[in-house]
Specification:
This protein is an alpha+beta fold and 200 residues long. It has helices at residues 2-11, 17-68, and strands spanning 72-77, 82-86, 99-102, 113-115, 139-144, 160-166, 170-179, 186-192, 197-199.
């Protein structure tokens, strides 16, 4: 019986070295071909996280203004790539109680996050009538009233919109978030290359 097993082991063949090398070469080629797709997918996932963070922070600022019955401000700081929420329970601007969110926590480099529209993209307004709010001293302030609305210096409702894109994927990751002045509601828009427009 022992001789039978020894003969069986001798008769079994494994893979030859050339066969193993060919399999490894095929796997390496597949990995190299798939790597750009994987990298792009990870980048898009991170950029969509940035979009969610902005939308969530805007909604939180509005909810706090309404619940605390006070004026609250959402600030986007383009130099530091940071969101700052102040007013009411978060104190005046610069107070240690200000709520701060750094975009560095999204896994993107600050140089990859660009405020504005990529070149070649339409400058037309969004479907809700809002258009990009320009930076003033490298910040955008959106101040919510106790009723949740956003008004201008004259007390009239004013729409705001933040536009962003990824410096490495540009049009693929471009998005906008609008805030309707009358009710303070936010909408998320993604750029469609086929339509050359931001779609809800």
């Amino acid at each position: 019986m022992e001789a039978f097993y020894k003969n069986k082991i001798k008769n079994q063949k494994g893979f030859s070295l050339p066969e193993v090398l060919i399999v490894l070469l095929i796997i390496a080629i597949l990995v190299v071909l798939a790597l750009p797709q994987i990298t792009a997918s990870r980048r898009m996932f991170r950029f969509s996280g940035l979009q969610r963070q902005l939308s969530t922070s805007l909604n939180e600022t509005r909810q706090n203004a309404m619940s605390q019955r006070t004026v609250m401000t959402f600030r986007y700081d383009n130099v530091n790539k940071r969101i700052i929420i102040y007013g009411g329970g978060f104190g005046a601007f610069g107070d240690v109680k200000n709520q701060k969110t750094d975009f560095a926590n999204t896994g993107l480099l600050p140089t990859e996050i660009v405020y504005g529209r990529p070149s070649g993209v339409t400058t037309a307004g969004l479907g809700d009538g809002s258009n990009m709010t320009g930076l003033s001293a490298n910040v955008v302030d959106i101040t919510f009233q106790p009723d949740g609305s956003v008004i201008d210096a004259s007390g009239n409702p004013t729409n705001k919109a933040l536009f962003f894109y990824d410096s490495k994927s540009k049009k693929d990751g471009a998005f906008a978030i609008s805030v309707l002045g009358a009710g303070g509601r936010t909408k998320v828009w993604r750029y469609s290359k086929g339509a050359n427009a931001y779609v809800e």
